[in-house]
Structure formats: C-alpha cells, structure tokens
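The following block was generated as part of the benchmark described in Methods. Ligand: zinc ion.
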Amino acid sequence: MFVSISKKVIIYVFFIGLALFGGWGIYWYTHIPPILHQELSDVYPEGNAPAPTPTADYIHWAEFDVTESMMNKAFEYDLKTYGSDNHVSWIDLLAYSVAKKWGNVNKKTSSYIDEAITHIKSGAKIEDISSNLKYFALYKKIYSAVLSEYVGTYTNADGIEKYGIKAYSPIAKGYSYRHYDDFGNSRSYGYSRRHLGNDLLGSVGTPIIAVEGGTIEALGWNQYGGWRIGIRSHDKQRYYYYAHLRAKKPYAEGLNQGDTVTAGQLIGYLGQSGYSSKEGSNNIKTPHLHFGIQLIFDESQKDSTNQIWIDAYNIIEFLERNRAKVTNNS
Ligand SMILES: [Zn+2]
C-alpha cells in the first residue's frame, strides 16, 4: 500500500513537472530572440548549446529589422518631447518594443511603442517600464550602435542649433533612384555569397553623399566593389561602404584615405565600376550605388569572417526626408 502511494506520488510529480517545465521549455525555445538563435548556431555548431545568455564581452551577431514606420513613430515622439521632462530617446522606444516581443519584429511590435508612450505620458520613465524586460539592454546596445548618431543636436546652415535628424540619404537631393530590399539575395561574382548591402539604382554621375561623418578608411579599387569608399563613424561602431562608383572621376575632389568627412558631404558619384581585378573596369550591368553598413562591437570583427552587415533598406527609406543638396557638382 505504502509503496504504491509513493509510486503514484512520483508519477504525479513527474507529470506536474513535465506540464510546468516542458510547457515553459517549449515557450522559451519558440520565443528566444532570433539574434540569439543565430548567435548560438555560430558559437555552438554541434547544437549542444547552454542557456542563451548574451555574451558578456561583446555582441557577436545582430540584425536590424526595425521597420520604417516604427522608426518614424519613435522619432516623432523623441522630437516632440525633446527639451521636456518626459523626453524619451527613439532608441529606447524601439528597444522597448522589440524587447517586449522577444526580438521578433512583426505587425504588433509597433503597438508597443504606443504602449511605452502611454506609460511615459502618465509619468513613468523608460527605465521603470523596461526594468523587467530581459532583452531591453541588448536591443538598446544594438540600436544605439546603428542609430546613435542619426538624431541629436546639430548646427544648421544658418548657424542655429537644432535638434533632429543629423544623418543624410546617400543620394543627393533632386536625383531620382529606385531600390528594393535586396539584402541577403545571392550573388555569384567571384564566389557564391549573400548580398550584404542595398543597391540604389540611378544614373551614372548621381552625387553620392556621406550618410554620417567619419574617417575614410578605404578609398580606391577593389575587384568586387570597383571604385569604392569606406567611411568609419567617429565612434568606430559603423563602417559605411559605398561601391561601384563612376569609372571616370569616382570621388569628390581632394578626398584621400585618412581624411575626415562630415555628414551630408559630397563624396563621389554613382557608376557601374567593379567585378574585375583590372582597375577602372566597368562591369556592373545596371548603374547603381551599393550601400552597406557594417556594425563593429569589437575591433576584431572589422575584417573577420564574422562581420556583421545590416539591412539598410529601412534606414535609407527613413533618411529620405533628409537629402543633401549638392551645389558644386562636377
Ligand atoms: Zn550591391
């Protein structure tokens, strides 16, 4: 009698345990942020990964799939509250909404920006409402690495200090272009690979603008990118890659490796150079700017096989409102 009760107890405990922890395990697995899935599959290819905690040292993998409408909504509120007691950074709003959805960006994610705004309007601080969100700090770090220099104070052409968008579209004002989200598509020149940028199709000679200020780290010929220019942000976290520039006169006058450029500055001209080891070859069929953004959380990532390039399509759409006018075009 005694033995059979204890067997029953063991069975009950087993099933209660399974119900509680099995269910939690399935929920947990299906709700791990996708970036952590990715990170784990890189670090533990055998699949015997421990609990997915973000690495303490630096972020090994990140994606940027925040939509343009999310950026617009978060930015408008940031701008509207600037200078007031309940000013909140658009980066915090974006990080809150995505952390709420455990890293998944879908149609509902944007509604969490509204939720955060409602709390803030009633006096809460972003620190309070995000304190129990496991992934808030991680997304804040990632979105800061992408967007930290896009919005802030700047001095306009009339010498007046303003608060707003400081970054520019890579295509000068008044020049037409078209693009679609072609990030990750396959490319086969040289070797089979993923397309780690966005192609902006336009006319040869269209002035290309520095999206953000920084230091020119690369300038010259590369067999894939043709005439290209690589600009590193001042905080070192972003590397902008502008490629396939015009075969003749690819760059703005006087630019050299090591020079500093400012956001909105003319840096070169759209073209179709590249896909050859022969300098100056014009082998790209359709003239376009290849635009790439690389994130660098640790210097070892810059030229490693684990580079982090993000989808810039939505960023370019967002920056459409801030296009630089080029006056000394040649
Ligand atoms: Zn491209």
